[in-house]
């Protein structure tokens, strides 16, 4: 294959190798690019295509125990991914598509539930305003929503129709 120079972000790097190769300064020159290609091929042949990875625990002298735990968890997860039988499914793409559709539908359902809750809240607020208006007209509370004596009596009466019974008591 042909070697080319590419620009990329450091966040794109997933792993580093412990192999150190000295490269010429300017790889735009064809001879230098050929030298770099030969050095790469030599390293690839020496390690049979499996470059040794840089071990951060060995390289960092004051590593914390937390780093070791994270490394173990990472290795465990990588092994689980390797051993997973998802590769055996012939219709894996279809299953993944179905899973993504399910996730999308769940998110849509959650959004609709939030909208329903907001709508119900608005309806309840309208109903509350109407109830307050009725209580003010019947003089059970003042315009500033303070409960009057008539309102307190209505609260204390436990009958089938408290409002009607209170009106009968106060109006005669």
UniProtKB/TrEMBL annotation:
Coiled coil: 67-122
All residue ranges annotated as the Exosome RNA helicase MTR4-like beta-barrel domain in the record: 2-117
Gene3D superfamilies according to UniProt: 1.10.3380.30, 2.40.30.300
Signal sequence range: none
Superkingdom assignment: Eukaryota
Keywords tagged on the record: Coiled coil
InterPro entries, A to Z: Beta-barrel_MTR4, Ski2/MTR4_C
Domain ATP-dependent RNA helicase Ski2/MTR4 C-terminal: 145-172
Protein's recorded name: Superkiller viralicidic activity 2-like protein 2
Organism: Triatoma infestans (Assassin bug)
């Amino acid at each position: 294959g042909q070697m080319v120079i590419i620009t990329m972000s450091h966040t794109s790097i997933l792993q580093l190798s412990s192999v150190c190769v000295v490269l010429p300064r300017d790889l735009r020159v064809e001879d230098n690019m050929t030298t770099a290609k030969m050095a790469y091929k030599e390293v690839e042949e020496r390690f049979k295509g499996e470059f040794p990875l840089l071990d951060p625990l060995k390289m960092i002298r004051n590593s914390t125990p937390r780093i070791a735990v994270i490394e173990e968890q990472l290795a465990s997860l990588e092994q689980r991914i390797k051993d997973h039988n998802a590769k055996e499914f012939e219709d894996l793409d279809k299953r993944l598509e179905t899973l993504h559709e399910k996730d999308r539908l769940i998110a849509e359902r959650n959004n609709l539930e939030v909208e329903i809750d907001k709508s119900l809240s608005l309806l309840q607020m309208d109903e509350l305003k109407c109830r307050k208006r009725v209580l003010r007209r019947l003089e059970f509370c003042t315009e500033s929503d303070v409960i009057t004596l008539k309102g307190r009596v209505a609260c204390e009466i436990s009958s089938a129709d408290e409002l009607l019974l209170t009106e009968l008591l106060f109006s005669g």
